[in-house]
Amino acid sequence: MIEATGLRKQYGDFTAVDGIDFAIEPGEAFGFLGPNGAGKSTTMRMIAATSTRSAGDLRVLGFDPETHGPEVRAQLGIVPQADQLDEELRVVDNLIVYGRYFGLPLDYVKRRSEELLEFAQLTEKRTARVDGLSGGMKRRLTIARGLINAPKAMLLDEPTTGLDPQARHVLWDRLFRLKEEGTTLVLTTHYMDEAEQLCDRLVVIDKGTIVAEGSPAALIREYSTREVLEVRFGSARNAQAAEAMAGIGQRIEVLPDRVLVYDHDGEAAMSAVHERGLSPITSLVRRSSLEDVFLRLTGRSLIE
Ligand SMILES: Nc1ncnc2c1ncn2[C@@H]1O[C@H](COP(=O)(O)OP(=O)(O)OP(=O)(O)O)[C@@H](O)[C@H]1O
């Protein structure tokens, strides 16, 4: 559905996207996971035919977005990072006006708008002004708006950034529904839990390059251990305690606020720490996550 080879974007001397390859299949939920500034939005803009590429090849639904922008845009649903809704219009009118931009017939747009309000759980708000909606409602309306043209693929740039946990869960549920209905989802995120919840497959992107690719479970299997022990000794003592823990587990990472011990059995690692006479202030055993994968691959945390 979307295929890139050697895709690159330069802004003057600065390379924002440095020759990346990826292929997104129909019906798949595909993610770009990476920290701020990794080049995710730039990649999305090139797919959405709103930004040109500096080199490489890109095909979206069989078209080159650079030469066939209107054809590409007609078949994509776009959910940009900032909502860009018409704040002064009523909720339902945001959908109708947007549908009319696509040149869709008014009858169709009106019917579709009601369906989409239902889907976005905004029917009760249909005549409310947008500026009175919560952040989560605005996001759901932006998603509904992106669906007005019954797109083959939805591009979602950081769909839940800035939302509270409850609003994020409501949004994930709606996106999951879309995925179940067969819509291809392409999303960027710097939240590992979002990537784990929604993506069938993802690429980990850092400084404009792809550093790993696979399903969340496969990435965790390949780049991390089953469990992680997190211990805190206080910021002044973490590094020293980590040295005293050398040899425990398969790998140790020292972060400013905690030490991570990677092992298939976190409880066993915890016992080993205590056997060395160390007493952490707090300790916790958890399953490995994509955050651990990112740390392993880049030496940095996803959210800094
Ligand atoms: N128009 C532009 N001119 C110059 N540099 C840009 C421009 N747009 C983006 N960049 C730079 O390119 C890099 C990648 O930006 P991009 O927005 O794609 O990152 P991102 O991974 O989406 O992060 P974010 O979550 O912050 O949007 C950043 O260093 C950014 O400052």
Automatic annotation (TrEMBL):
Residues 2-232 form the ABC transporter domain. It is a peripheral membrane protein. GO terms for cellular component: plasma membrane. It is found in: Cell membrane. Keywords: Antibiotic resistance, ATP-binding, Cell membrane, Membrane, Nucleotide-binding, Translocase, Transport. It holds the Pfam family ABC_tran. The keyword Membrane applies. GO terms for biological process: response to antibiotic. GO terms for molecular function: ATP binding; ATP hydrolysis activity. PANTHER family: ABC TRANSPORTER ATP-BINDING PROTEIN, ABC TRANSPORTER ATP-BINDING PROTEIN NATA. Belongs to the ABC transporter superfamily. This is ABC transporter. It comes from Agrococcus pavilionensis RW1.
